[in-house]
Amino acid sequence: MPHPLRRRAGLIAIAAALFGTGALSGFATDAAAQTQRPVRVASKIDTEGSLLGQLIIKTLEAGGVKTENRLQLGTTKIVRTALISGEIDLYPEYTGNGAFFFSDEKNPAWKNHAAGFSRVKELDAEHNKLVWLQPSPANNTWAIAVRKDLAQKHKLQSLADLGKYLAGGGSFKLAASAEFVERPDALPAFQSAYGFKLKQDQLLALAGGDTAVTIKAAAEQTSGVNAAMAYGTDGPVSALGLMILDDPKGVQPVYAPAAVVREAVLKQHPKIATLLAPVFQTLDGPTLQRLNAQIALEGQDAGKVAENHLKAKGLIK
After folding, report:
1. What pLDDT digit, counting tens, does each position of 283-308 carry?
2. What domains does the chain contain, in order, with CATH numbers?
3. At what angle do helices 159-167 and 187-194 cross, to 10 degrees?
């Protein structure tokens, strides 16, 4: 019987003879091609998703990491499914969504900025081999905004006030995305906590998740709408005559924006983390409101807004 080492050497020799140098170099070429493939950056369909995606793309490109633009790909479910399946490589997500992703809504960690980040980072690494990078200090939580004239007339400052107003038969119609209406951690959570239930004729469901559209509908009273789904970092809310109702019970988790990347891609491009960390550090709530308003209200291009911000902060040349 041949010695095991000799037998192994013989098999290697046979393999080399069968495949030839061309086949072996082909394997090397495939590995190199995978490393050189552009990082596919996606985002959700809303205004802030486009802004964050452009900030990521422009930062990575300036840092020598080639990218493929897949921005405004779709809703949360579509984009996250694409990331987990490997169809995209990186996109901006919000820490509080981890409660929904992992059916962990009762965990108090989601109400805390640092704890929520640590929790989702741990869960996604374990279950999906995804890496959450350093989050923004902002909190882009779900919210309900009402017209200021409605708020002033009926003394609406909080969602508790809204619950009382609705119980008294007050006129109300909310423009929102189907996701906001259906997700258990969005409108249903508000309704449960504050004791109200909107009927079908009190809802105007709009395609996509862009709050710029829902806010505009309330501002213009489209189809009788006087309230809108909004986010904590929405720029157009006040400018268009709306105000966000307070959430005194703290129903919503903290939704801190952060880039999420596939572990395999981060290993190929480890500098992604160091390039993006200082970018997200600059994105506090007022900054995101201002940048979002430049896009949604002033009609500026998201890519240009992102570029101007990065240059102003000295993050790109």
Report:
1. 999 899 899 999 988 999 999 999 99
2. 37-139+256-312 (3.40.190.10), 142-244 (3.40.190.120)
3. 70
